[in-house]
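Customer escalation, tier 2.

The customer says the design service returned an amino acid string that "doesn't look like it belongs to this structure." They asked us to rerun it and document both sides in this ticket. The original structure tokens are below, unchanged.
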């Protein structure tokens, strides 16, 4: 938690809007958030309690990772909030002040009360940007897949009378990222690029994702970035984000920033 930052923000003129996000790993000091010009704030929330298994058991986001990639953006204020109990960001939302939640954790536990609070924020139109690890987050809450549009399968599942295998991951893969729709506000001005990052394969997807980013790498699912709506919220999920190469890519920074602006309804 960084209450000092929050206080600073609250005493500032409300010329920015904000987003909030969760995060994995202690190396990323503090959770995070995006703030956007506008009314309130956004933020990251961060967890040090990543669940075991999957790609990120023990993974650490390097100093200056996502946080370094998104700080200092004009018109956006990031509020980083560490989560020590997976999802306490949603415990009490009475003073909620963020425009966008930027998830970057793979935390698992979210109580019924926190679920309801989170959903009520989505009923208000608070935006969601879901980055990388969170595709495997809140894995036992089926509704979360409907919110962000995908779920990393930790174990095989029975589906339509057949067994669907568990998802898999691979580190340090060089992939070509293609822009499926360059006219969308999230991808506007972003050209295809090649980067080195972690890939996921065999994730479950919601059928109504509007796909913005794809790759044809065999270790990856084809769809690696999309937007959708859930209740009154705009949602953008970007699978990329393990780092550190991707954090250094200007295209990634642009995508994340434009995702925040779009989910905050500042564009398009
Ligand atoms: Zn990862």
């Amino acid at each position: 938690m960084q209450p000092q930052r929050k206080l600073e923000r609250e005493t500032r003129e409300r010329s920015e809007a904000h987003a909030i996000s969760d995060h994995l790993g202690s190396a990323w000091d503090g959770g995070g958030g995006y703030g956007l010009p506008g009314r309130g704030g956004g933020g990251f929330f961060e967890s040090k309690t990543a669940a075991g298994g999957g790609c990120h058991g023990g993974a650490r986001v390097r100093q200056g990772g996502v946080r370094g990639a998104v700080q200092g953006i004009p018109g956006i204020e990031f509020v980083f909030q560490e989560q020590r109990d997976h999802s306490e960001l949603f415990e009490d939302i009475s003073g909620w002040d963020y425009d966008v939640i930027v998830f970057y954790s793979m935390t698992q536990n979210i109580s019924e009360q926190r679920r309801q609070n989170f959903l009520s924020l989505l009923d208000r139109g608070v935006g969601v940007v879901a980055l990388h690890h969170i595709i495997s987050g809140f894995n036992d809450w089926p509704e979360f897949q409907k919110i962000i549009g995908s779920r990393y399968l930790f174990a095989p599942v029975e589906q339509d009378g057949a067994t669907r295998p568990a998802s898999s991951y691979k580190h340090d893969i060089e992939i070509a990222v293609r822009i499926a729709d360059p006219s969308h506000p999230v991808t506007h001005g972003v050209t295809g690029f090649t980067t080195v990052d972690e890939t996921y394969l065999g994730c479950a997807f919601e059928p109504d994702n509007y796909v913005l980013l794809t790759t044809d790498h065999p270790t990856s699912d084809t769809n690696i970035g999309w937007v959708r709506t859930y209740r009154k919220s705009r949602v953008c999920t970007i699978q990329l984000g393990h780092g550190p190469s991707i954090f250094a890519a200007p295209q990634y920074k642009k995508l994340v920033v434009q995702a925040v602006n779009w989910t905050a309804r500042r564009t398009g």
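Tier 2 assessment: The sequence is consistent with the input. The pocket of zinc ion is lined by residues 55-56, 59, 132-133, 198, 242 (CB under 6 Å). The radius of gyration is 17 Å. Sent an explanation to the customer and offered a walkthrough call.
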